[in-house]
């Protein structure tokens, strides 16, 4: 699953992953994502930090706080590359942090390191 308020980022990630044979669902914010995750749990979640209504930190904390999804890998996406942002991501339970713009190799490498292709 790719959660980002930027349609460009969602489409880019979805296209890159789909070309490699992955099924991808998308959401434009944390609220939409939580509803979709409950209905169809993903194997991996990419989530933008800066989003309206429910930001990536809050959504990650809610996902990781639910025992049903606690082991689902969450990779934070951000244009910020600061130590504080990375640390805050870890505090809320993220498994990795990718800086935007990410490359195809970074995106696919993150997927491969956190999941086995199903």
Automatic annotation (TrEMBL):
InterPro entries: Bact_response_regulator, CheY-like_superfamily, Sig_transdc_resp-reg_receiver. It comes from the Bacteria. Residues 1-115 form the Response regulatory domain. The modification 4-aspartylphosphate is found at residue 48. CDD domains: REC_OmpR. SUPFAM superfamilies: CheY-like (SSF52172). Keywords: Phosphoprotein, Two-component regulatory system. This is Response regulator.
């Amino acid at each position: 699953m790719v959660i980002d308020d930027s349609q460009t980022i969602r489409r880019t990630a979805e296209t890159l992953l789909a070309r490699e044979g992955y099924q991808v669902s998308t959401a434009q914010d944390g609220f939409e994502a939580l509803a979709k995750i409950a209905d169809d749990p993903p194997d991996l979640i990419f989530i933008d930090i800066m989003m309206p209504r429910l930001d990536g930190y809050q959504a990650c904390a809610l996902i990781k706080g639910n025992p049903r999804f606690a082991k689902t890998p969450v990779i934070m996406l951000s244009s910020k590359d600061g130590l504080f942002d990375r640390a805050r991501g870890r505090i809320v339970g993220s498994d990795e942090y990718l800086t935007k713009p990410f490359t195809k190799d970074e995106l696919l490498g993150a997927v491969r390191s956190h999941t086995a292709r199903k």
